[in-house]
Amino acid sequence: MELGDYEQPVVMREENKRRRRRMKPHCTSSNWSSMELIPIEFILPTSNKHTKLPEIVLLEIAGNCTVEQMKAQIWMRAIEMSQSTDFYHAFTPDQFILQYQKKGQWYEIYDKHQLLQTLDCILYWKVLQKKVGKIYVVQKQNPSEEVQEFQRQLNDLIGYDVTDVSNVHDDELEFTRRRLVTPRMIEVACRDPKLYAMHPWTTSKPLPEYLLKKITNNNIFIIIHRGMTSQKIKVSIDDTPDRILHSFFTKMAKKKSLMDIPEDHSELDFVLRICGRDEYITGETPIKDFHWIRQCLKNGEEIHLVLDHPPDPKEDEVQKEEWPLVDDCTGVTGYHEQLTIDGKDHERVFTISLWDCNRKFRVKVIGIDIPVLPRNTDLTVFVEANIQHGQQLLSQRRTSSKPFTEEVLWNIWLEFDIKIKDLPKGALLNLQIYCGKAQGLSTKTNLPSHESSNSDSKCKTQLLYYVNLLLIDHRFLLRSGEYVLHMWKIPGKGEEQGSINADKLTSATNPDKENSMAISIVLDKYCHPIALPKHRIMSDPQGDRTRAEMPNQLRKQLEEIIATDPLNPLSPEDKELLWHFRYESIKHPKAYPKLLSSVKWGQQEIVAKTYQLLAKKEVWDQSTLDVGLTMQLLDCNFSDENVRAMAVQKLESLEDDDVLHYLLQLVQAVKFEPYHDSALARFLLKRGLRNKRIGHFLFWFLRSEIAQSMHYQQRFAVILEAYLRGCGKAMLHDFMKQVQVIELLHKVTMEIKSVSAEKYDVTSQVIAQLRHKLEKLQSSKLPESFRVPYDPGLRAGALVIEKCKVMASKKKPLWLEFKCADPTALSNETIGIIFKHGDDLRQDMLILQILRIMESIWEAESLDLCLLPYGCISTGNKIGM
Prior knowledge:
One of its GO terms (biological process) is cell migration. One of its GO terms (molecular function) is 1-phosphatidylinositol-4-phosphate 3-kinase activity. It catalyses: a 1,2-diacyl-sn-glycero-3-phospho-(1D-myo-inositol-4,5-bisphosphate) + ATP = a 1,2-diacyl-sn-glycero-3-phospho-(1D-myo-inositol-3,4,5-trisphosphate) + ADP + H(+). Residues 800-881 form the PI3K/PI4K catalytic domain. By secondary structure, the protein is α+β, with helices and mostly antiparallel strands. The chain folds into five domains: 37-139, Ubiquitin-like (UB roll), CATH 3.10.20.90; 205-312, Ubiquitin-like (UB roll) (Roll); 336-439 and 459-489 and 509-531, Immunoglobulin-like (Sandwich), CATH 2.60.40; 549-726, Serine Threonine Protein Phosphatase 5, Tetratricopeptide repeat (Alpha Horseshoe); 731-880, Phosphatidylinositol 3-kinase Catalytic Subunit, Chain A, domain 4 (2-Layer Sandwich). The protein has 30 helices and 29 strands. Strands 23, 24, 25, 26, 27, 28 and 29 form a seven-stranded antiparallel sheet that branches. Strands 13, 14, 15, 17, 18 and 20 form a six-stranded antiparallel sheet that branches. A hairpin with a 2-residue loop joins strand 13 (379-389) and strand 14.
């Protein structure tokens, strides 16, 4: 049976949205007993030879059975009863997928490790009071040539092949790609096509006092151009663009021919656009709140707008999704009482609760292997193993020291002083290789951290390599079995340090397998998957008691702790006080980062109490948004998904203009997420798909990180792919041209640097060579026009070659001048671009961003410090403009 011809609905009806909201709580709870048998009708891919109808199998499946086990049961029954037995002998269950219908959409049951009772379809059928649900068994289809070609285009734009799984030890990359389809489709379906096409750049901040003084009687003059004619009109700064258009057409009712306006056209057929820019003045926002209008007022310039036809929203259509949707319950585990083995027939247990595992966690270090030894062979080496959550060290062990050879074997178990049941989601097993001079080899193993540091103090040690492994995977399952992990090298003196503190938290392994250090480890294996249960929010009687028992002296001490600078570290006593009086602390929004950093994340009971606490965060929810405070919860100190999601939820109220202000930091904060799919990743995806300007900068910020940050390539690539699949054809076409220009200019820059060596001066011959190369580019490969990456409102056209030169600087940046591609530009001014290779322009971007934020703070106080921060963007590995 084929299901490939179904249509994916583009727009969700209003009643469907309402029903979706009502059903949401059912995704987190289930009334089914874990041992209950659930009847399901499976529609097989084979047909009855007599009736020609699809064959059907009715099975009763245990609620705690996994999807993989359910598929095996379907296959066994199909072999027994189907008229096409040979078909089921020829194929395996892995070559088929399970699908169900919900509100006219097809969903795939994607996670093979998920328990049946936690599936969204089971909960959905229960709400509909269906006694027997239907699941379709569908053969996997190979992607069409069109789909493969589109994927190749996306990979070129991303700068990374997201389909390459050669450097992953699980399916998190593919899992996240599938999970992000649903939020992407919802955002694309819900966005306003006209507003998205024109992406007006506005602000809701009050007009600064110094700008109001430049305005007479609340009115300003604007000049509207159409063809070769123009008309100057007076408007109120409180008028909206739509009202201005209406007034203009009323005034020009009998003079349409003068402005080359057809008689049958009205204001509904036109829109106002800034002369020379691909930037629109449209919508229901007062004209005083458009950035360009404020910029003109600030600089004392005339406001020139062109009467133009609106862009066609069809240009923003997205490629049809080739995947069925997966619901947000995918990857969800059950509650402890559903997973626990207590009181159950062990023959009918398929998944075990992590909280039933009362033994200590351990790891077996087999050994390390390095292709090239350090020059100094008189060295010893040992492995330090840490379990950490964010920056919080939960437990530490180390091996004995051994001579540093090409292959060092230990073959020993390291047992940690943390129980398996206490491992939190997001916990990392951090493995580090240290070396030191050989001074009598240590034979101690399993030393606690303080003893390790004391023993190492006798001889200096140096950290050489590190790698991390998430102990609870993206599906809430405990890792088990053997792993060979390729490690990251610590940069040496004189080497590029990059963002080393963020890099040391990555769960990715080194893709350069041939030249990197490899460590072989073994984790305990179990007869069944071990799943971390969901937390139930229960009452906290101890917390209720302490609320009423706080003396005034301690209250004052608590307030002083809350008021301390975020950069000042808290003492253990401070943390103890914050936690003991946690119900008092959550009344103060500023206390949240300090309080949550006081949580002992390596104790399951305390984590449960923390979630009980966060269920009563009304003060936080109702407080005014403080971006700096919220960003603290997204830094490297917090790995808990619920804490980070709480911070992201607070950021939902950010306006587009503020998202642009903080986008650089938000992209960097993605590095501190423990998993690829996160609330922050979804927030960035949603805001980028909602506004083209945000989407433009999100593209370049992500692409720049993919090119420069090997440690987080996969994570940024999967987010960027999700964005590109929803941004629309017009944006894709623009990005392709920008990437093409960057690659061509990069090639020219490298050629010029090779002939001008390290000299600071630039000879006339070098400039002549540059112009010759640019002429060749112009006549063959360079696009006719492209958006300027650091200013998407500008379209650059042909190069003005006689004005281009090589700048007298060590990095030999190119000074390039382009004509403006917009024919409505009022002057012949060129667009000047400095194209540079050799410096990390992310640092420049950060400084300029700080200046812009400071400028907005000063403007709020009506101070004009006449700053002119220039545009700057990193477009690749030490490349930018």
